[in-house]
Amino acid sequence: MWKDQGRRDLVAETQHREHVDEDYAFLRSLGIAVARQGIPWPFVDKGGAYDFSGLDPFIDAMNRYQILPIWDLCHYGYPDDADPFAPEFADRFAAYAKAAAEYVTPRIRGPHFFTPINEITFFAFMGGEWGWTAPFGKTDEQRQKLRLALCRADIAAVKAIREVDPQARMVHIDPLILVVAPKDRPDLRDDAERETFVDTFYAWDVIAGHRHPELGGSPEVLDIVGVNCYSFGQMEYRENGPHASLEPHNERIRPLGDLLTYAWERYRRPMIVGETSGLREGRPDWLCDIVQESLAAVRKGIDLHGVCLFPAIDMPDWHNGEWLHNGLCDLVEENGRLKRVPFQPYIEELRRWQKRLNRVTELDEDPFSDPVDLADIKKAADEMKMTSDKDWC
What's the first-to-final CA gap in the chain, in angstroms? Predict the structure, then answer.
């Protein structure tokens, strides 16, 4: 529920539904065998009665092109009649999550992966303090209350999903950020550090059982840590509203490897980069930076298993509706349809790293018969003598 536009459906806005076969065929042609795919809770939950039939074209296409989904069960939206602050919210979300697992697990090959609630920390800012999305809160107190409610629901959902598939894996995703005080406001240093080293990790801490253990969190519930890494994730603190991104080459930028190390040492759980992308012509350079930093992290012993390029196809800016040009494909309107136009420099950079790391560039008959061996990736990183740096240009 967006502040001035009501209920939004990004699947409709990008015409992913109409192009689902083309979109997954495109991933297959790139050698990509895993994709995050959303289940729209507000559209399938009708007061506790569920209609998941709208997922069938996506499931059919994923099966046809052998794409393994990470099911995203709540990506900022919840049903109109649900109240995240109500005592029954966690039970309702858990019931929906269980029903979703019951629907998808028999219909698609395993292993089965789920992200119960995407970006709890960012969701809490958007909906609890900035007023961008429902429940349209405008205070720090509302943000903290929403964050804890989402954590409670997430933990309940994990347990409900594992009643259906005890082996199901969870990918808990939130931004990995750095916030620094303005140079002329050293009095804000404590606030900036609290957001970097406390707020950023609070939801993961609760899900891991480090905070509020009465909610039932544990390392096994946290499972896989998905860190989202964007250039605008290193920021200068602002007292009101979103912070200001640091410009490239700012001396206060920290290497991504340092941030990955901090997250790894805090939880010691398997990790992925859950989302990352550059913008426009910067996409190839950003991919190069991210892969280099990821390889440096693997070389240091961090259990980092992959990088998720988000999005596969372009997406609109939430605020002004303009295409961001951050996907592997750009979208170009043509006779009422959104034509997928691959951005070749980005794809060529992807190909370069696939070949360097001895990975497939197109899926074969069974993409999962030869899984990635992290020892091979570490060997390549060692051969390249990959080290972390702060050049995020």
Answer: 34
Q: Which residues pair with 179 in a beta bridge?
A: 235
CA distance 169 to 36: 13
Q: How many CA atoms lie within 13 A of 88 on its CB side?
A: 7
Cα–Cα distance for residue pair 153/137, rounded to 1 Å: 19
pLDDT in tens, 163-175: 999 999 999 999 9
Structure-token pair, residue 167: 């082996």
Mean pLDDT of the chain: 94
* pLDDT exceeds 90 at position 339: yes
- The confidence band for 137, taking pLDDT boundaries of 50, 70 and 90, is very high
Domains and CATH numbers, the chain: 33-167 (3.20.20.80), 176-311+363-393 (no CATH)
pTM of the predicted protein model = 0.95
pLDDT at 91: 97
DSSP string, 204-251: HHHHTTSS-GGG---HHHH-EEEEE--GGGEEE--SSSSPEEPPTT-T
Helix (H, G, I), strand (E, B) or coil at 378: helix
Whose tokens are 């080290």? That residue is 387
Q: Give start and end residues of each alpha helix (H) in the chain.
A: 10-13, 20-29, 41-44, 56-65, 89-104, 120-128, 140-164, 189-194, 200-207, 219-222, 256-267, 283-299, 344-356, 374-383
Kindly give the pairing relationship between strand 224-228 and strand 169-175: parallel
